Amino acid sequence: MFVLFPILELWVLIRVGAAIGAGFAIGLVVLAAMLGIGILNRQGFQTLTRVRARMARGEEPTAAVLEGMVLAMAGLLLLIPGFLTDVLALLALIPPLRARLVRRLLASAHPGYGAQAPRNSRVIEGECERED
What we know:
Layout: H1 4-20, H2 22-56, H3 62-79, H4 83-93, H5 95-109
């Protein structure tokens, strides 16, 4: 992966440069990097605000933190020169795709995350003490 992906990235960059011109290709890569810096800057503060708001409401901020991490990763991918990383970053910036990715990540980390209890289940809350 660490060898093949950069080679593939260079190949795509050369092909795009040959198709639209080297100047335009370099311009697109620089524009994507500037966009990545802006995203990293803005999303960091927005994520922190969302996490604080969820914690103030007594909710678990896991999804908000993970979404912020996905956005940060998208910004980082935009900073890396190349078109494949830019496409992956842009896919992560689409809210429905990002939300689906976050749900999948949470479900893989915590089986049953987001699953609802069966309607006929009965939960009895209580406390327990162990006496030796």
